[in-house]
Every structure is written in structure tokens, then in C-alpha cells.
Amino acid sequence: MLRQVTIAALVLAVAGCSQFRVPFRKPADPVAGAPMETVAAEPAAVVPSPTALTPEQFDTTTGEQRAAAAAAAPVSGETRLGTTIASLGDPADPGFWAETGLVSEVRQGRLEYPATGKSVAVELRPSGGAPGSGTRVSLPALRVLEAPLTDLPELVVYGG
Fold this sequence. Notes:
Elements: H1 2-15, H2 55-58, H3 63-70, E1 79-88, E2 97-100, E3 107-113, E4 118-126, E5 135-137, H4 139-145, E6 154-159
Parallel strand pairs: 1-5, 2-4
Antiparallel strand pairs: 1-6, 2-5, 3-4, 3-6
Helix pairs in contact: 3-4
């Protein structure tokens, strides 16, 4: 019994050590008035409202962003990576992107939906799957392509 009480007392004593200030120790806080480094903050991505229910509410891109992505013309030097069966990716993940097994590293590319003739510039992200394992596409990209959100449309993938 004495042994258990001693062990418990030691554990509590060690756990409480962080609560005490050590005298003569240099403070870890920066000195008042000393110049501080400034870090440029990246703009935060717009996240959909927690109450979002419709595709329009989940799509946080602006009309200008959608127009710019849709206006992306084929780039010289881009190559056709293949065709893929697409599905809707995470609707809360903003931006124009596609997770596909057709790429092994992040790169810029373009998706084309032959049924509507529309294309959209996207960031191609590796999915970790095999090239024929399908592609998850962002909500804004599927909306620009006018592809059905609940179907599995066949898309052509181009890499720049």
C-alpha cells in the first residue's frame, strides 16, 4: 500500500512541475519592442456554410472564377492523359481540382466533357489509385462542365 501511495505522489509531483516558474530562468517570450518577423498570410479558402444543402450553396467559387476556369483553352504542349469515369469529390473542398490515377504528382490540367463540349482548367491531384480507377472531381468543376452531379460521366483528362 505504501508503495502505491509513493508512486502516486511521485506521478503527481512530476505532473505539477510544469505549473511552477523556475527562478533565474530567461523568459521564452520575445522581448518587448524587439522587431518581429512578418509572415505573409495566404488568403483562407472560402468554406461552405455548415447549413449548405444545395450545389449552389456548396459551390463557393465566384462567377469570375468559373468563367476563367471555363475559358481555359487547350495549351500547346498539353497531352491527353486518357479518359476516366468521374464522380463528385468532396463538395466542401473548394476550387477546381480532380483526383485521378492518371497523374503521379500535382500538376495543372484540363477536363473535357464530350457530351456538352465544355472544358475546365483544374489542378490534377494524384489519387493513389490505378489509372483506370476513376476520378473524383470538385463540385465547381463539374458545374462548369455541366455534367450531372449524381451520374458517372466520362471525361477526357489533359495534362499541361
